[in-house]
From TrEMBL:
Name the record gives this protein: NitT/TauT family transport system ATP-binding protein
Source organism (scientific name): Aminobacter niigataensis
Domain ABC transporter: 14-245
Similarity section: Belongs to the ABC transporter superfamily.
Keywords attached to this entry: ATP-binding, Nucleotide-binding, Transport
InterPro entries for this protein: AAA+_ATPase, ABC_transporter-like_ATP-bd, ABC_transporter-like_CS, ABC_transporter_ATP-bind, P-loop_NTPase
Length: 270
């Protein structure tokens, strides 16, 4: 996967410098990302907030190595990507589990896909299922699980090959409000136990503040970084965290980004 080493940025875990992406279609060109510059440190939980259609998923595809920047440079551990990034795990909005496979076999899917030795990952699979509270369901089938449990299986599957970075594209968007809040707490617990870097795309301001070390605010399309906010609230965060004055201040500050500029046409929710 490594192509070019850049000594200036070799120490960064993930860096995007002046990255631009333009899609060319039969109907013309769409500039999805423009001059986007961002650095992510190893082990950090980064949340990305931005208006609908601004280019968040495109950013995720870049980091996953599924797309190349049209302009600028993306370095992962100091190196350019040349094809799919095998050191990331991906969790989508819909976990899309295989209905004919058990929970354990669904979690182990990437191991087969990446042709890694299954024996070496069995213990880690059990450990992940335990961290996610799914040990008793290891042999259950997806239809026997609730939506939240299925999404937890999706998170375990994203972590099974021990990726350096977990990419999450609105993973809780399809869940009801209560399950979503519960999943936020679960994800924090899983993250605190595994300490992987996480790149988490969301439309929810509350979710971003609750989970992240840093929040990256993007502009309307083409996406560029409008602001990066460090969230220094103590961990583990819980229901009481949301009543802290800092939480409210951050929330108002972020809301102003989206509600103050009608051109952004955001659907970011408070
Ligand atoms: N494969 C593609 N070909 C052409 N245009 C694309 C492609 N993928 C995305 N786009 C365009 O790029 C822009 C950004 O899309 P993207 O999916 O990255 O936004 P997003 O912020 O993730 O959206 P949402 O918040 O609605 O999920 C959109 O205008 C979209 O139409």
């Amino acid at each position: 996967m490594a192509l070019t080493e850049n000594p200036n940025l070799a120490g960064s875990f993930l860096s995007l410098s002046n990255v631009g992406v333009t899609y060319s279609t039969r109907r013309g060109e769409t500039r999805a990302i423009d001059n986007l510059t961002l650095e992510v440190e190893d082990g950090q939980f980064v949340a990305v907030l931005g208006p609908s259609g601004c280019g968040k998923s495109t950013m995720l595809r870049l980091i996953a190595g599924l797309l190349k920047p049209t302009l600028g440079q993306l370095l992962f551990k100091g190196q350019e990507l040349d094809g799919p990034n095998k050191e990331v795990g991906i969790v989508f909005q819909n976990p899309t589990l295989l209905p004919w496979k058990t929970v354990r076999d669904n979690v182990m899917m990437p191991i087969r896909a990446l042709k890694l030795p299954a024996e070496k990952y069995k213990d880690w699979c059990d450990e992940l299922l335990e961290i996610a509270g799914l040990t008793d369901f290891a042999l259950a089938y997806p239809h026997e699980l609730s939506g939240g449990m299925q999404q937890r299986v999706g998170i375990c599957r994203g972590l099974i090959h021990k990726p350096k970075l977990l990419l999450m594209d609105e993973p809780f968007a399809a869940l009801d409000a209560m399950t979503r809040e519960h999943m936020g707490a679960e994800l924090q617990r899983i993250w605190m136990n595994t300490r992987k870097s996480v790149f988490f795309i969301t439309h929810s301001i509350q979710e971003a503040i609750f989970l992240a070390d840093r929040i990256v605010v993007l502009s309307a399309r083409p996406a560029r970084v409008v602001e990066i906010i460090d969230v220094n609230l103590p961990r583990p965060r819980n229901a009481d965290t949301q009543s802290l004055p800092e939480f409210g201040q951050l929330s108002s500050h972020l809301r102003a980004h989206f509600l103050g500029d009608h051109k952004n046409q955001t659907d970011a929710r408070p």
